[in-house]
Every structure is written in structure tokens, then in C-alpha cells.
Specification:
This protein has 130 residues and is α+β, with helices and mostly antiparallel strands. The chain has one domain. It contains 5 helices and 6 strands, in the order αββααβαβαββ. The strands form 2 sheets. It has a 4-stranded antiparallel beta sheet with strand order 1-2-5-6. Strands 3-4 form a two-stranded antiparallel ribbon. β1 and β2 form a beta hairpin. It is globular.
Length: 130
């Protein structure tokens, strides 16, 4: 499966789990993929970055509520079983799905303090929302 096919699967699954996707004209195609991450979850990702760096995977599927754990199960199984009984803030994405380079960008970014951030992996941009 190509990186683009994997990303499209992530987009499809992200739509069903609350990840933000901005659409192009007439809603025909995804223009920008972004993930909302709370300050608390971002701090966890940064504190445990070595867990994710040590992974042999090229693409990281990280359920935010499970930080610092990196699921060993396949993505679909993880999505089906994710979050049962685990409440999450609706302003936050349930997961992020990024390359290792995009993960590095996320944890190295230094935006202004906020309660929730939006991360644009393709642009390597993290911005405060609240």
C-alpha cells in the first residue's frame, strides 16, 4: 500500500473519529489534513518521544488517549477497539497518523501557549486554537 493510499485510509477513518479535514471546492477532495491535540496530550507526546522514535514503523498511528503507548495491533483493529469507555475532549482528535518526520516536527514546534493546538503535518505547522 502506498503512502497516499494509507493517508487516504487515515482521512476516511479520521472523518469517522473526529479528525479535522478541510475540503476543497465543492467538497470534492481533501485539501488539508489536520489533527487537534490538547496541551496535555502534546506534553505527553513530547515527554515520551523516545517511545515513538524507537518504533520501526515509518508511519505512526498514535491514539492520543493512550499516550505513551504505541499500539501493536493493526490500525483497523486499534480503531475499532480504541476509546471504549475512555472519554475524550470533543475538541481533540482521537488519534494522529503521521510519518516520523512529521512527528518530529510536531514535538519540536514551539507555538504560543494554548489549551488546544491544531497540527498540519504536511506543512509542519502547529498553531494554538484556544
Amino acid at each position: 500500500m502506498s503512502l497516499m493510499q494509507i493517508r487516504m485510509l487515515g482521512l476516511f477513518l479520521g472523518l469517522s473519529l473526529g479528525s479535522a479535514v478541510a475540503y476543497g471546492q465543492n467538497g470534492a477532495s481533501p485539501a488539508t489534513v489536520s489533527f487537534e491535540v490538547s496541551a496535555e496530550r502534546l506534553a505527553c507526546l513530547r515527554e515520551h518521544a523516545s517511545v515513538y522514535r524507537a518504533s520501526d514503523r515509518k508511519l505512526l498511528f498514535i491514539p492520543l488517549a493512550e499516550c505513551p503507548n504505541l499500539p501493536r495491533r493493526p490500525v483497523l483493529s486499534s480503531l475499532v477497539n480504541q476509546g471504549a469507555g475512555k472519554p475524550r475532549d470533543k475538541s481533540e482528535s482521537g488519534f494522529i497518523y503521521v510519518t516520523k518526520a512529521e512527528f518530529e516536527c510536531l514535538i519540536e514546534a514551539q507555538p504560543a501557549p494554548a489549551q488546544v493546538y491544531r497540527f498540519f503535518p504536511a506543512e509542519c505547522k502547529l498553531e494554538g486554537l484556544q
